[in-house]
Specification:
eight-stranded mixed beta sheet; alpha/beta; 4 helices; 169 residues; two-stranded parallel sheet; single chain; disordered C terminus
């Protein structure tokens, strides 16, 4: 009997490997930034800062520079590719792109941005990758390896014993 697959959140020692199609070859690893909504290039990002500036977007004001950008795909005009190319020229590009749906504007944007890009994964990346996870995009082999973010260690104060803190009469 084969055991059930383990997701990385059930056992952080195991990474989850997704398999898909290469759009732009290369390998990059970094922190994931996940958007559940498409991103507009022209008017949706500030390429000089690598920030989402579309006011109604959930990631408004968030920087994607130096992150693995995981999102459904591109929206808007054919200017999308030019704006993402400008992030490369400005040094504010994402490390890699992971698309759910590839379109000609998204493919062209990935090519001119020159970052490893994968699409057509065997699992929906929006359901298995979380913002903050460590992600390795190996577009040379069409894989995305997900290592879950470590839980934040919050120091727990020692137990308080009121008997020890009472004053003596």
């Amino acid at each position: 009997m084969t055991p059930d697959p383990v997701t990385p959140w059930e056992n952080p020692e195991h990474a989850l490997v997704l398999h898909g199609r290469t759009v732009v070859p290369g390998v990059a690893e970094g922190e994931a930034l996940v958007s559940y909504e498409t991103i507009s290039g022209w008017g949706g990002i500030d390429p000089a800062r690598g920030v989402v500036i579309e006011r109604r977007h959930p990631l408004y004001g968030v920087s994607f520079a130096g992150k693995v950008l995981v999102f459904p795909g591109a929206k808007g005009s054919s200017g999308w590719a030019g704006f993402f190319q400008a992030t490369r020229l400005s040094g504010t590009a994402p490390l890699a792109l992971v698309f759910v749906t590839i379109t000609s504007k998204a493919a062209l944007g990935a090519v001119v941005t020159r970052v490893p890009t994968v699409t057509g994964l065997d699992r929906d990346p929006l359901t298995v990758i979380r913002t903050g996870d460590r992600v390795r995009v190996d577009a040379d082999h069409g894989t995305v390896t997900v290592h879950p973010a470590s839980p934040v260690n919050v120091p727990v104060p020692p137990a308080h014993d009121s008997a020890m803190t009472r004053r003596r009469p």
